[in-house]
């Protein structure tokens, strides 16, 4: 059954997942919940209360967000009254693209934002066309939950090695294959580049790598503008429901529990408004814990599916939020590594994540020479702010800085990042 409208998703009450559900029965059984029922779960007396003794310096905060499932912590902190509990009057501003997200934060039109983890690093360094505008990441919003989708015509060539002969032929014809990502220094660009290169495809020489906003990915594939794309949910699942593509690989299969979106601030705003930033993190903590209670996910999916936010049938969001993956090519999986928002220390901003991102920015020629592999992560990934906020809430955080990263094709220990960046046979390092 094709899912074509929100109205078509209202179904009978019943369990979200059975022992062996079909995609059809899953979509039909997605739970609908009214806003009143959703908000009925907010504890009495929370709205309007401030947790800390001293209120935030800036009380009205405008949050930027993109139409992706991982906007959920920000949206639900707003919808459930958690921002208000900590003295924040929140305004959610749905933006058209990651470039707009960056610019509105830089200009102060938005004071906090949903953002790709690579973007604050790039803005702090002035990379990829961005003016130098230092930004900080005191909170990771989620892990996992992105994917690489390929057009149905590639079902017999679904790995980079299998695609390579087709890419070579297309390049020779003067019409190279096209693959899309959402923003040059962002996560989706790095996943797509990394994946293609494992099969011998140079993303800067052998194919055309284009930038498309997340919500426009499916529409562009429908008109045959691209052969594949990397994006967050629900757009990978939407491509399958619309019958135009299939999931080749999920990002959690490339790197289990990888960091994805963040809540970012300009460094200037964070330094001038420390109580405000901590109030925001406290609200995000409550929303994130709620999001990782699986019984909440169907009703929360309905909220974030609204036109104000994602504008997508809620069942398409719910399916992968519940870990149910039907890849569109016959593979079906209950994935234990679905998108998480709080579990397994999701929110802690580890230094090594910034270091790994710098190796990839360096690998693909996006940095100006050798980057400061130690200084930039320390400046951007602010675990000190995170820990202060959690301490004030009485939340015990038992986490140590990660010392290594394990990807599907190898390990990064962070000891010699420049050598690691240059170790890849396929790269765009100029010098």
Write up this protein.
It is built from 19 helices and 14 strands. It has a five-stranded mixed beta sheet with strand order 2-1-3-10-4, with helices on both faces. Strands 7-6-8-5-9 form a five-stranded mixed beta sheet, sandwiched between helices. The chain has helices at residues 23-28, 35-39, 72-79, 82-85, 98-107, 118-125, 160-172, 187-198, 217-222, 235-241, 251-254, 267-272, 274-291, 297-304, 314-321, 351-363, 375-380, 383-393, 417-422, and strands at residues 60-65, 89-94, 112-116, 135-140, 146-151, 178-181, 208-211, 228-232, 245-250, 261-266, 324-326, 332-334, 405-407, 410-412. Helix 3 crosses helix 13 and helix 3 crosses helix 14. The longest helix has 18 residues, at 274-291. Helices cover 37% and strands 15% of the residues. It is an alpha/beta fold and 431 residues long.
